[in-house]
Amino acid sequence: MNILNRLAKKSLKLNKKRTIVTIIGIILAVALITGVSTVATSFQTSRIEHQRETEGDYHYELIGVPNNKIEEIDKNENVERIFVTKEIGTASYLNENKRADLEISELSKEAFNNLGIKLLDGRLPENSEEVVISDNLEKYSEINLEIGSNINLELRDTNNNKQEENYKIVGKVEITSKSIENSGANNYTYAVLSCLENYDDNSNYNVYIKFKDLNKRLDTIGTILGLNIDSYKSINNIVKEENKLLDNQSKLYDLNINNGLIQLEGGGYIDATEEMIYYISFIIILVIIIISVYCIKNSFNISMTERIRDYGMLASIGATKKQIKKEMLHEAYLIGLIAIPIGLLLGIFGIYIILKIIQNFLSEELFGMTFIFSVNFVSIIIAILLSIVTIYLSVIATARRVSKVEPIEAIRESKDIQLNRKNIKSSKIIKRLFGIGGDIAYKNLKRNKRKYRTTVVSITLSIIAFITVMSFVNYTNKINEILLGNISYDVQVYGDYKGLSKIAKDSEITKYSLLAIKDANLLNYDGHVTDESKLKGTDYPAPEIISIVSLGEQEYARYIQKLGLNYDDVKDKAILYDFKTRTIEEGQKDRYLLYRVYNFEEGDYIEYSIDSDNEDIKSYEIEIAKIANQKPMYLVNSDTSYLIVSVEYWNDVKESVSGVDVLSIVTDNAEEMMEYIQNKFDGDYDSIVNIDKSEKERKAQIITIIVFLSLFIGVTTLIGITNIFNTITTSMELRQKEFANLKAIGMTKKEFNRMIKLETIFYCIKSLIIGIPLGLILSYALYKAFEINFIGLKFVWPLSAILISIIVVLILIGVIMRYSLNKINKQNIIETLRKENI
Amino acid sequence: MEILKVENLIKKYGKGENEVIAINDVSLSVEKGKFVAIVGSSGSGKSTLLHLIGGVDRPTSGKVYIEGKDIYSLNSDELAIYRRRNIGIIYQFYNLLPILNVEENITLPCELDGKKADKKKLDELLKILGLEDRRLHLPNELSGGQQQRVAIGRSLINNPAIILADEPTGNLDSKASEDIVNLLREANKKYEQTIIMVTHNLDIAKQADRIIQIEDGKIV
How far apart are CA A307 and CA A43, in angstroms? Predict the structure, then answer.
């Protein structure tokens, strides 16, 4: 119908303000949904790329494959590609009094490109006489080999034959793949890599495989390894089957699995962490979708309801219901045509810009990986469909409402108010507090349920979203604490107390903690070990050993203050920290269990003894002052539990045997600090370590998640506010006649303001009453989701979130009301009354 | 020829204690080409009667036949279509679409039918209504009288069987009122248009061919 389309277009043009507000509402909602999916996709892609660049772009490593079998593997239909390395042998390198263990391998060109090997200096080897060396060699054992120099190595090859080899060093590389160089904090075997030139039938090779279809990898690997994997299939969990495969003794080759990449590429590796992440994302996305959908629906409702009179008029001169519906749909179509694409672009480019900012302004070091921007077209399409469906349904709902009304009633707008004479008695309290204005407001609210419902729902949804997301941030933090143990140092120096104290006093070192740790034998542990400690699963700590720790005066004072303890009360006692996490198998899943090792309580006594150099074994007894639920800063997660004592106590009990003392330093540049100490304090310490990069990365990842979440809280709140603004200003506008009437019959400005204030308070109270409990419920659901992975996690009431919601809602509504009031008060009474009639 | 027949029309509002009987068993019939005025005091039900005749409100019971057709046997879509082709309604408050100009407002019933308005008829109407140089103006650029004339034009464009006018001069000054009534009379004479007009002004009512008086929902 041409006229209908024209009507739609004109109406949108002439009601510019209304149209624009509707469009903005939809844009924000669509942008939010798009943004969420873009972030998720980008994050996933970044993680995959990162895994490929650190561990390597392979799924399985087969160890010891004879040359004549390589091609067969390559040709397997499920193998996308392979690359090959060869283990040459090991050697010890001695220089002055420094010693390092070396592992020599030859890598093919593809191997160099796909095993996360980063060339730092020089070039890659071009033949089997040239090598590149790992930069960890210099870092950790201070052996500095120059590029261009030669090294002579006495190799012990894979058959245990000795051989002398001479290599020329042509470059230095950074190696991150554990399949090439595997390192613990204190014992490194450093990689020396040469170029794989010749393949001979007498040697064995390591073949790195990438599968085409990860879900079929077991069948493929079964064929390659010469195993019948049917027996594994009954386990019905591809990861467990895979693990069993590792144990199988009769397989042809040894196997090394790049779990990280398989997990990210969807190889069925759903551990409890992933499951938890899915559930949580689901809840958050659900909240976001509900808000967005509601916002779109509301925007439309508002713009359509305003025009009921026009629709009534159209009907009265003979427009059919279908025609009216068509007109509404056309309006919706025009709005959607503009709003949805803009929303999509805003969402996508918004994320793009944020990622660019993160890349440029925040060091990659901090996050441990580059963020790759990636868009998932499936989710874009879903976002579009969701918006279209929502818009369509809102229009249909309004059309249905309009069609139920006879034309003349629509024109009079009489059906809008469903009045019920019954049971509305004036409340005496309200009258006294708020005057006649308040009385009218009260009656208004009681009778006009539908109109106010929209506003209340808008506010409520925002409250719920806010509380939910804040809880999420809360729990993420808690878990972060548990998993990472509050690591915030950068460099750790091991040695003895004397030497370390000397270093600690250096002017360059300002933030540090000097820990003295000594392992002791716990004598009375029998009967005091918890059941969870004894559960089967991954390695669990031996309860007979406990570590006694002195934090140094400063840290100790800070720690006991955090625990709410008084120094004099506890200086002769010990603080027990024995919380641990471990994975336990529960059916098909692995879960993290947070538990206590011992069941000692405050006031119990611990008996321990310390091994000393002289055969004298002294035993001691100490009372437990408190069971701590937080670790002191700078203390790493270890196998044993900790007894934290004062420096005074420590000095009394200390034996001549040196324990493991640790100086933990916080610094801006870990590399520089390490070099500084290495140069200046040579001999004062045993070893020095840069904290494990991956732990810092993990923490950074969590920080990133929190950053993005805050963004989403921000946008969701923005949507909520727009929605609320829209709803309230419209309802104010629609009631202009009512207000003019009241003023005309003599309601003073003061009384009028009171009336509005009361309405405000009612809105707030009602939405808070509904919103807070629902927010709590969702918060609890989140807690349960986290608990999937972290048994023993405690539910935390989101009190601060609730408080903030209350304050923000009050302020927000107050501001909007005042804005509307200002507008209304400016109007001329009679003109408003007249306006309705034209 | 009988163009309108109303049979035992009843319209009630509300329930129980609150029940109001707006139209209390009204029956009447109107011949084609007549100009009828319905008068009554405020709240007598005259407007309600008019709306029921025009099919913009539903009766509680009773029948309305226009050109022999029982309009309440139609469903709402059929009724809407019937209305746009056969009934012209003029309200006291002009009820034009604020977003359409004079010409578009007048031709709206035709457009809803999917047909283009008869240009000749349109030009003629505009001339008679004195709106030729206001063709493209929007309602908020017109005076009250002009708006009402647009409403009349809209009601005439489809040569409907009857025109219903609900207090068409209620909101106008005496000069404009006179113009409007004259226009209606001219339409009645020139196009043989049957017109039923509700008014509370006896002077205006006297200009009609027949006066029906209604009080408390009944014809007296």
Answer: 45
Mutate: best of B112, B116, B143, B152, partner A, most A CBs <10 A: B112
Interface predicted TM-score (ipTM) = 0.76
Distance CA A609, CA A654 (A): 11
For chain B, give the number of residues: 220
Whole-angstrom Cα distance, residue A461 to residue A459?
6
How far apart are alpha carbons B157 and B116 in whole angstroms?
A: 11
Cβ–Cβ under 8 Å, residues A837 and B171? yes
Instruction: Please tell me the distance from the alpha carbon of residue A343 to that of residue A310, in angstroms, as a whole number.
Output: 30
Task: For residue A84, count CB atoms less than 10 angstroms from its CB and return exposed for 0-12, middle for 13-18, buried for 19 or more.
Answer: buried
Task: Classify residue B133 by burial, with Cβ atoms within 10 Å: 0-12, 13-18, 19+.
Answer: exposed
Cα gap A760→A811, rounded to integer Å: 10
Note the Cα A75 to chain centre separation in Å. Answer: 40
Region class of A557: left (phi > 0), else alpha (psi between -120 and 50), else beta = alpha
How far apart are the C-alpha atoms of A696 and A699, rounded to whole Å? Answer: 5
- What is the reported pLDDT for B27? 94
Q: What angle do CA A51, A56, A62 make, to 5 degrees?
A: 130
**Residue B57 and residue B166 in contact, taking contact as beta carbons nearer than 8 Å:** no
Structure tokens at A720: 């909520």
Residue A11 near residue A22, CB atoms below 8 Å: no
pLDDT digits (tens, 9 = 90+) for A382-432: 888 888 888 888 788 878 877 777 777 777 665 444 454 555 565 677 667
Beta-carbon contacts of A614 under 8 Å, excluding residues fewer than 6 positions away, are: A656
CA angle A520, A525, A531 (to 5 degrees): 125
Burial pattern A519-535, b for ≥16 Cβ within 10 A else e, equals bbebeebeebbbebbee
Buried b (16+ CB within 10 A) or exposed e, B81-90: bbbbbbbbbb
Domains of chain B, earliest start first: 34-58+72-219 (3.40.50.300)
CA A607 → CA A528, A542, A596, distances in Å? 12, 16, 18
Which residues of chain A are within 8 Å of residue B112 when distances are taken between CB atoms? 1, 3, 314, 317-319, 323
Does the pLDDT at position A613 exceed 70?
Answer: no
Nearest beta carbon to residue B83 from set A318, A322, A403: A318
Residue type, B97: L
- CA A703, CA A476: separation in Å to the nearest integer? 9
Chain A: nearest CA to B199, how far in angstroms?
A: 18
Listing DSSP states for A393-445 in one string gives: HHHHHHHHHHHTS-HHHHHHT-TT-----TT-PPPHHHHHHHHHHHHHHHHHH
Give residue A836's pLDDT: 47
Measured between beta carbons, the chain A residues lying within 8 angstroms of B76 are 320-321, 403
Query: Do A652 and A516 touch, CB atoms closer than 8 A?
Result: no
Residue A793 is classified by DSSP as P
CA A610 to chain centre: 43
Cβ–Cβ under 8 Å, residues A590 and A536: no
What DSSP designation does A185 have? Answer: S
Dump pLDDT digits (tens) for A250-276.
777 888 888 878 877 876 655 555 666
DSSP letters, A8-72, are: HHHHHHHTHHHHHHHHHHHHHHHHHHHHHHHHHHHHHHHHHHHHHHHT-S-SEEEEEEEHHHHHH
Residue contact B154–A421, C-beta within 8 A:
no
Instruction: Return the structure tokens found at A740.
Output: 């003019």
Asked if B58 has any chain A CB less than 8 Å from its own CB, the reply is yes
Block residue for tokens 């990842």: A701
At residue A63, φ and ψ (nearest 5 deg) are -110, 130
Q: What is the pLDDT of residue A838?
A: 32
Contact between A363 and A390 under an 8 Å Cβ cutoff? The reply is no
